């Protein structure tokens, strides 16, 4: 195989692999970034607010405490899109934007 063909195949493989981010990883990264943005803007995250009803298609972004507290179970602190079934997945991050879980 010529060197040019090998380089072309390698380049196409890298480009293809770079575009293969699964939806869960995309939602996690987007939620962590949004949390950091809101924190930098001075938004109070201590009550565990919903940050986005659609951080990615079918996913919401929610703040929760780790370990979980009663305030996290209050409907007003949960994403309505998840509660009403519009979204079927959620990303939970803590007040410092660390991933708790993504389901």
How would you concisely characterize the structure shown here?
With 103 residues, this protein is α+β, with helices and mostly antiparallel strands.
Task: Give an account of the 3D structure.
With 103 residues, the protein is an alpha+beta fold. It has one domain. The protein has three helices and four strands; from the N terminus they run ααββαββ. The protein has a four-stranded mixed β-sheet. The longest helix is centred in the N-terminal third of the chain and has 18 residues. It is globular and about 35 Å long. The N and C termini lie far apart (45 Å).
Low confidence ranges: 10-17
Question: C-alpha Rg, in Å?
Answer: 18 Å
Helix content: 25-40%
Q: Mean pLDDT, nearest integer?
A: 86
Order of helices and strands: HHEEHEE
β-strand percent reads 15-25%
Strand tally, please?
Answer: 4
SS element count, helices? 3
Given the helix and strand composition, which structural class is it? alpha+beta
> How are strands sequenced across the largest beta sheet?
1-2-3-4
Shape: globular
Tell me about the largest β-sheet: 4 strands, mixed
How many separate domains make up the residues? 1
Terminal CA distance? 45 Å
